Amino acid sequence: MAQAGTVIAARTALMHYELLAPDGNAAATITLKNGIWPAQAAPATPFLPKAITNHPEITAGGQTYVAHRRLRTNKFLFNDFDIWLANAAGDPVISAITVGYSWTTAIKHAGQDFALRRKSSYRFAFDLTRDMASVATFHDTTPFWTMSARRRFALDLSQPVDDVLLAFSLFLATSIFFRA
Asked: Which regions of 50-180 does DSSP assign to beta strands (E)?
């Protein structure tokens, strides 16, 4: 459980993020794997060879969760998805609904509803809310002209937040902003 205050997150490689605990060790990791992240119900998914498909993984609290997604709409440019993390038994632990044209993603975790709202078109800035009250804000602290895949993010928490919720929210925010 991340406590109120600022949590530092870092993209240490193009496809790897870490949420750092106060002692500097990784409290949670997000690993995007090489290959295509398949979406259930997408027209091309049945034709993708298994060798080129991979699911992102989030590790928090000593457990690894696998990210899955299902296509809700099949539009030309902006599609809606159900995205969820499944534990080792395959049970959903946390879920989200992304709407292609919307700046808000609905998240459901532990029986509570959250909203992840993008705050800007031009910079990495997101707000995680519950019942219209801010739970956390995310922003990029990397200097603008940095020519590197490495990035640093500040996650300002107004209250304690579960590591799985925080890592999943950062995963969604980076996927939305960087179109990973």
From this structure: 57-60, 63-71, 81-86, 92-98, 104-109, 112-118, 125-130, 133-140, 151-157
Rounded-to-integer distance, Cα 9 and Cα 115, Å: 20
Half-sphere exposure of 11 (CA within 13 A, CB side): 20
pLDDT digits (tens, 9 = 90+) for 140-155: 999 888 888 899 999 9
Beta carbons of 64 and 58 less than 8 angstroms apart: yes
Give me the sign of the Cα torsion angle 39, 122, 109, 165. positive
* Strand ranges in 14-91 using DSSP code E only, listed in sequence order: 16-20, 26-31, 57-60, 63-71, 81-86
Widest Cα–Cα separation across the chain: 46
User: Which residue from 10, 79, 80, 57 is spatially nearest to 168, judged by alpha carbons?
Assistant: 57
For residue range 49-78, what is the model confidence (pLDDT) as tens digits? 888 889 999 999 999 999 999 999 887 778
Encoded tokens for 147 = 């020519």
**What is the reported pTM?**
0.93
Phi, psi of 176 (to 5 degrees): -70, -50
Q: How far apart are CA 101 and CA 114, in angstroms?
A: 19
